[in-house]
Design a protein that fits this description.
Order of helices and strands: HHHHHHHHHHHHHHHHHH
Shape: globular
Number of strands: 0
Length: 417
């Protein structure tokens, strides 16, 4: 769909600065060692860590929609700035925490910071691209932004993993907070993209966005599929450290393994647009989520040579996420976009809470391998049923029927399955 617009001042510059914020807003040097840090330095068990993860996911659920409404009611830019600042504080508290209470406090800060950025980032990018006549490029640009961020995290992960050869495990975590402050500086330089203003109340925006997803079958079930895939990815990334350490891999090498997993994810984000163009949205949703769920068996097997299968979830989530966000963004009004995307993310965290609680309770009783195998079987069923229900709703095109014709028709041939 061709767009002819005069770009508002500053939007093109914002689009050049936005990738820098996108990369630095989660400059997590402790990605490969934080579980080991909690076990060795803070005395927690893996089961306790998974239950603590459920606490932070619960805090995210509480914060997700209100922070999305802030972005819709006020500005996306304010949400990005506040999210970066709160995340900086969370890293510092997490790295210095000497009690379970402080650790839980840092988790809550992580939840609020992540929720402030979630939805607002995607809506900011969509609105900015639309302002310069490039909204049809959203899925590709979003996927590439996520790929850059993932490569950046991989570099930070390797650096943090190597740091622990010479420093305490907490140092890379605290240093991550400094990098989040740099991200806040980039957020200050962004220009808010134009959009239709909303005069609805704070509560009404939230109710309308949530109601739209709940009532609309196509939106409801694509959100369920996306939520399950994110849960699968987080399971893989939370459990890979104890799996590999149990197989004799040294702690200092975990950074390289995590970096490899990040690169798999980056490949997924970078190829998102090509996945849609080659296979179509419907076929991609039919196959990739089930493959991610089956991939968990690579970690459940106890065989190190099958571990690469475990990383399938990383590729699947990053390749599908831009397609789902674009699908939702094109079907909601301006004044609800960030909130709708936050509701989408809220559903993903609810899924992750359920999985984390289940694993947290099962791991210390029946072992990690058996718990992962059971999770794989359950998640395969969930994604297959959700896909069948989404497909039955009939709205299977990337572009809604109300958008003209050329783009939607161009994809129609690839949607057959």
């Amino acid at each position: 769909m061709a767009e002819t617009v005069t770009p508002p001042p500053g939007i093109e510059r914002s689009l050049r600065l936005l990738p820098w914020w996108w990369v630095l807003r989660w400059a997590w040097l402790g990605e490969a060692i934080w579980v080991i840090y909690l076990i060795e330095d803070r005395g927690l068990t893996l089961g306790q860590i998974l239950l603590l993860e459920a606490v932070v996911f619960g805090a995210i659920v509480i914060a997700e929609v209100p922070t999305g409404v802030i972005a819709d009611r006020y500005t996306r830019r304010l949400s990005l700035l506040l999210g970066s600042l709160v995340s900086a504080g969370a890293f510092v508290v997490f790295g210095l925490a000497s009690s379970i209470e402080l650790l839980m406090g840092s988790y809550v800060l992580f939840a609020v910071g992540g929720a402030l950025m979630s939805g607002a980032d995607e809506a900011f990018l969509y609105d900015s691209l639309r302002a310069v006549g490039r909204s049809e490029e959203f899925a590709g640009v979003f996927g590439r932004f996520n790929a850059r961020m993932t490569v950046g995290i991989a570099v930070f992960t390797v650096a943090g993993g190597l740091m622990v050869i010479w420093t305490p495990l907490s140092w890379p975590i605290v240093l991550s907070g400094v990098l989040s402050l740099v991200a806040a500086g980039f957020a200050l330089l962004l220009v808010e993209p134009p959009r239709e203003p909303s005069d609805l109340s704070f509560m009404r925006i939230g109710r309308r966005a949530a109601g739209r997803i709940v009532r609309t079958r196509a939106l409801r079930w694509i959100v369920v599929i996306s939520a399950a895939v994110q849960g699968i990815e987080i399971v893989a990334f939370t459990t890979f450290q104890p799996i590999l350490v149990g197989e004799g891999v040294p702690v200092w090498a975990l950074g390289w393994v995590a970096a490899g997993m990040m690169l798999v994810a980056a490949a997924g984000g970078w190829s998102s647009w090509r996945v849609r163009q080659r296979f179509g949205l419907s076929r991609s949703l039919a196959v990739l989520p089930a493959l991610a769920a089956l991939g968990i068996l690579g970690g459940a097997s106890g065989m190190l040579w099958l571990f690469p299968v475990f990383t399938a979830a990383m590729f699947v989530r990053e390749s599908l996420h831009p397609l789902v966000v674009e699908y939702l963004s094109r079907r909601v009004p301006d004044g609800e976009r960030a909130t709708t995307l936050s509701v989408h993310q809220l559903a993903a965290w609810v899924s992750t809470i359920a999985i984390s609680l289940g694993l947290g309770l099962a791991v210390d009783r029946v072992g990690l391998g058996s718990s992962l195998a059971a999770a794989s079987a359950a998640l395969v069923v969930v994604v297959i049923v959700a896909y069948a229900l989404w497909r039955s709703a009939g709205d299977r095109e990337p572009y809604p029927a109300s958008e003209s014709g050329e783009d939607a028709e161009g994809d129609a041939g690839s949607e057959a399955i």
